[in-house]
Design a protein that fits this description.
alpha/beta; 2 domains; two-stranded antiparallel ribbon
Length: 183
């Protein structure tokens, strides 16, 4: 379900990509603001109140990770979704650790892109509503005590890392994955 009138701020140095992505996002019901560089977005940062940032990683002068760092330094809480043709595991981990909602690789399917943006907007709304509680999934059970965390993880770990476990699954003997999200 598309968040009506949500604004997607697209930052990419490729003009043809900006035009194409703007068409797709507008057709999906979003308002779109295009920026050809990170500097252009920063010049308008005071006017940006809500929405989501769709950000390229490799750009001249100010790359996406540097822009993310500057926005974090300014106290921005806008969700960032990276969309790049030059992704790596190292870059993705760096972006996620700095608070990015997701890192997608070009080309990306329309459905994946729109689902990711909608998820980022939903998480942003949850964070801005102090009364909201994160819900796992219909098939998941919320973790209520440190004893329930897998792999010896405890509440102190979550507190120090400023994360909350949101999805846990086990595969094979003693193999498990915990997906964390910043509350």
């Amino acid at each position: 379900m598309t968040t009506k009138h949500a604004t997607i701020h697209v930052v990419d140095d490729d003009p043809s990509f900006r035009v194409a992505i703007a068409r797709l996002l507008r057709a999906a019901g979003y308002e779109v603001v295009l920026y050809e560089s990170g500097h252009k977005l920063l010049a308008n940062a005071a006017a940006i109140e809500a929405g989501c940032i769709l950000l390229d990683i490799r750009m001249p002068e100010l790359d996406g990770l540097e822009l993310q760092d500057r926005l974090n330094g300014m106290g921005s809480h806008l969700p960032i979704v990276f969309l790049t043709g030059h992704g790596s595991v190292e870059t993705s981990v760096q972006a996620i650790k700095a608070g990015a909602e997701d890192v997608l690789t070009k080309p990306v399917s329309k459905d994946t892109l729109l689902e990711t943006i909608e998820r980022a907007l939903a998480r942003s709304r949850e964070r801005s509503d102090p009364g909201s509680k994160a819900i796992l999934t219909d098939t998941s059970t919320p973790i209520d005590s440190p004893a329930e965390l897998p792999g010896g993880l405890d509440a102190r770990f979550c507190e120090v890392m400023d994360v909350a476990p949101v999805l846990i699954w086990v595969s094979g003997t003693n193999k498990q994955c915990v997906w964390f999200n910043r509350p």
